[in-house]
Amino acid sequence: MGGTRLTYRLGGALASLALGACSGPQSTLQPAGSDARLIDTLWWVMFWGSVVIFLIVMALVLYATFRPHHRRLPFKGRTLILVGGIAWPVVTLTALLIYGVSVGRTITQPVAPEAVRIEVTGHMWWWEVRYPDEGFVTANEIRVPVGTPVEIAVDTADVIHSFWVPNLAGKLDMLPGRVNHMRFTAEQPGVYRGQCAEFCGPQHARMAFYVVVETPEAYAAWVEKEAQPAREPQSELELRGRDAFLGAGCGACHTVRGTEAAGMLGPDLTHLGGRLSIGAGMFDNNRGTLGGWIVDSQAIKPGNKMPPFREFDGETLQALLVYLESLQ
Description:
Elements: H1 2-20, H2 34-66, H3 78-107, E1 116-123, E2 126-131, E3 136-139, E4 141-145, E5 149-156, E6 161-163, E7 172-174, E8 180-185, E9 190-195, E10 208-214, H4 216-226, H5 236-247, E11 277-278, E12 283-284, H6 287-300, H7 314-326
Helix pairs in contact: 2-3, 5-7
């Protein structure tokens, strides 16, 4: 009895997990882009095709097992092998192959000249995002306009990563020394979660990012803001925070455009305050998580390249946080 209950509970838990993966901001079964919709259709065709084949095979097995002895299959022997073992699989698999290749050709077509071009570089463990036509760099967050073709060129600065936003497009490997291209058109505004899909080290699971799909007007306003240098401190507290940032040597790794901070090792922080998350999509961007990250990022995400900064007293740390939050 106990074993039966355990089986039911385990089955229920697995069913909940399976159903939970069918929706949400990171689901292949809720397409919100042109490529994702094609991949979703291909998946369902494969799924229902496999279901039909499975049911046919099981029906034949049951028929062969329980049929009356005086009844026979309409074909047998050599004919059965030729039809069921060769012709049927060849026709079925060829049709699926042709359909799959046609989908692949469609999603790799060159995009229109007016496409938004974005370059993404994978690092252990964060994402560098460049908008070459607009001339600025950001991190761990991509913004695109709805209904406009997007081309994303991906590469890596260290090991193999894989760029994947399930709601918008398929996976694309990021290989050292090679630039790959992904094209899609987002069809619905929203915030979609992406994830590295290739094991790249101990913090691979904490290498996420967000794609924010906005109206063309909101996107244009965001681009105009991002292209500007960092906002100047507006208060004594912000000024003290900026001095702490520069005095502690943060500019050796991070860039804040408009200041002397021009480091290239870590994420560009020019508009950090306007981002949704920190730590490559792992934590909401607020004063608490930002403070914890500064004081001891190694305890939160071991192995990243930012050392702990415990030398700030309480007031200085608060000023630093106020300054970073002001970088909208």
